Backbone:
């Protein structure tokens, strides 16, 4: 600091006196933030996106066997959200809220019912495409370990395996 800045600092500090050494607060330690009911960060924790593996998507380090187990129904969904009949924007917002709560609650596997597009004007699975794209690169993609199509009897659903806290 220059001479003028030093003088201004001393003037502003006035009669402030330092704390005695034994009254000082201990230094802050870096802690991993707890995830409770508050919102999760808006950034993905994975640096690489989910990659396609046949009919499944999986994160790096997740075995093909785990993805097959998810696809075959060995992981039972603990929660389900049905996005049928919603607009793309409403469905993505509902999915975001649903997954944030599931992650905060430590849920391991969820089912997302997006439909097959049989009743859409374009006859395309708009919600399914949007959901899968959002899961691959959206703000919570770092929390998704694997995605697999549910068995055909489920009517257009995907099973998601979530990263444990």
Residues:
């Amino acid at each position: 600091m220059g001479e003028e800045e030093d003088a201004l600092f001393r003037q502003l500090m006035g009669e402030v006196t330092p704390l005695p050494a034994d009254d000082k607060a201990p230094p802050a330690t870096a802690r991993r933030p707890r995830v409770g009911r508050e919102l999760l960060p808006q950034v993905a924790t994975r640096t690489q996106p989910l990659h396609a593996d046949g009919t499944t998507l999986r994160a790096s380090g997740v075995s093909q066997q785990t993805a097959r187990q998810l696809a075959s129904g060995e992981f039972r969904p603990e929660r389900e959200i049905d996005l049928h009949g919603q607009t793309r924007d409403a469905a993505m917002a509902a999915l975001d809220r649903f997954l944030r709560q599931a992650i905060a609650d430590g849920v391991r596997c969820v089912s997302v019912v997006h439909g097959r597009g049989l009743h859409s004007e374009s006859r395309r699975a708009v919600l399914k495409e949007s959901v899968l794209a959002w899961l691959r690169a959206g703000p919570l993609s770092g929390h998704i370990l694997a995605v697999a199509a549910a068995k055909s009897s489920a009517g257009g659903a995907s099973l998601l395996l979530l990263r444990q806290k």
Q: What stands out?
A: The chain has four helices and six strands. The longest helix spans residues 88-104. The chain has a mean pLDDT of 75. The two ends are 46 Å apart (CA to CA).
